[in-house]
Design goal:
261 residues, 8-stranded mixed beta sheet
Amino acid sequence: MPESDVPVSCYIRTKNEADRIGGTIRAALRVCQEVVVVDSGSTDETVRIAEEAGARVIDQPWLGNGRQKRVGEAACRNDWLLDIDADEIVSEQLAEEIRGLFSSGEPARSAYRFRIVTEPPLGKTWTNCCIARRVKLYDRRRHRIPDHAAWDQFQLAHADEAGRLEGALLHHSFRHIGDMMGKMNRVSTVRAAEKKMKGGVFLALRVCFFLPWYFFRNYIKRALWRRGVYGFASAMVLALGRWLTDVKMYEIRSGLDAGKK
């Protein structure tokens, strides 16, 4: 594959992503001069496939969400960075927009946000629901991922500082509904440990009463009702994942309270 002339480096965290890392790297190399894979101990063919696809692989035991990304930031040759996950594909539209940003030199802004669109294992792309917009292209001379175990997205000083691109990252976020549930369970454990601890009574109320709200937020506000039965199931799992964070925080809070007695 010919090297891109766009002065952008891409970094990707991996662990056991052999079934999808090759396509992710090849799509990124359409617009990036290099791809750096930060692998945290894969036991499948992830490393071999990544290297064959054109990536440079760094072996780094897991440091936490933000800290692992910072390893990738430091390893890249370019200052402009594209932050993607192993299950995200740079669409051709997005690649073309990024090329356009650099066609006349440095981009006008120091960071750019774009759409994250889910590619589910069943049915059509979720172009009309559950869409996120995140800053994923940025100048590391101005912005850095948080040095944090849980949080891996930075906050801009001013909301209008980031430019906006219309192209999408196609997010193959789960392989099947059980995979989604496992992911929510893992994420809730990390978030419960890292969130600012709330009072036990408040947490108890959230555990007992907030699950319907979490479902409503995903099914109605994020429009998963548009995806039929699978949308309903996905909204349920996402709600349960958020609710598990409350339950695990309540367990931690209860343990802290018991230790004070």
